[in-house]
Amino acid sequence: MHLSAIHLHPVKSTAIRPVASATVGRAGLVGDREWMVVDTAGTLVSARELPALFRITADTPATDPAVGADLRLRAGGVPDLHLAAPGGRQVPVLLHRTALVATPAGAEGDAWVCRVTGRDGLRLVWCDDPTRRRLNPDWARPEDHTAFADSAPVSLASSTSLDRLNHWVRETAAQREEPAPGGLEMGRFRPNLVVDGVAEAFAEDGWRRIRVGSVEFRVPVRIDRCVMTTIDPTTRQGGKEPIRTLARHRREGGKTWFAMKLVPEVTGRIAVGDPVTVLEP
């Protein structure tokens, strides 16, 4: 097995940024989901309710060493925006049901995001200290933490499992006498790490500890999927898949499951092509 892709998402719910290598910190991959968009109440605004966020391409030095700023925002038809990591006052924010604090990026960043998405009242905020956020005690250790990822520092998916899911999706369409669908791309699930060469689909469900290159990760739990996976990030149009088919084949406890949550045990560097070894099945 080997690592076939690394994805960063500098601003939560914006375009995926593929990279050849990444630094692994205790909070996750450096440069991943350290910024997010909130409304006037401080509540997360994601592409689930505002697919126009997919228009935004965000870069940091982790995704583009020549970026020339702490954050660069780009979108078709508007000038690029370069921002420094903000300082000063913090504001309360809500990421799903988790209350946190974040640092506002400022009026210039807010106005740019509002212009690109066509929605007023949005604010761009930055996580200056991910150690303040604790994770679900049902599976996390007290010292585990992350920035603005949904629930875990790192996520991992298997291309073998995606192939199986696409097979099921085609079966579902055939049974319902629907047109043959195109294959779902891995970007629907927004994993940080993609692994090729897994012998069986969903074998990763049973992993408990792995090593990627020289970096070890705990694999505590699977990821339950939400309706955001039904939005095509390219067309920004919603549909029924993959939730419809996952509900038939991967439903348990009232939730649908695809991919795994990872917690770094050490820090280090990883790169596309690194071997992936299961240390504790």
Automatic annotation (TrEMBL):
<dbReference type="GO" id="GO:0003824">
    <property type="term" value="F:catalytic activity"/>
</dbReference>
<dbReference type="InterPro" id="IPR005302">
    <property type="entry name" value="MoCF_Sase_C"/>
</dbReference>
<protein>
    <recommendedName>
        <fullName>MOSC domain-containing protein</fullName>
    </recommendedName>
</protein>
<dbReference type="InterPro" id="IPR005303">
    <property type="entry name" value="MOCOS_middle"/>
</dbReference>
<feature type="domain" description="MOSC">
    <location>
        <begin position="122"/>
        <end position="279"/>
    </location>
</feature>
<dbReference type="Pfam" id="PF03476">
    <property type="entry name" value="MOSC_N"/>
</dbReference>
<dbReference type="InterPro" id="IPR011037">
    <property type="entry name" value="Pyrv_Knase-like_insert_dom_sf"/>
</dbReference>
<dbReference type="Pfam" id="PF03473">
    <property type="entry name" value="MOSC"/>
</dbReference>
<dbReference type="GO" id="GO:0030170">
    <property type="term" value="F:pyridoxal phosphate binding"/>
</dbReference>
<dbReference type="GO" id="GO:0030151">
    <property type="term" value="F:molybdenum ion binding"/>
</dbReference>
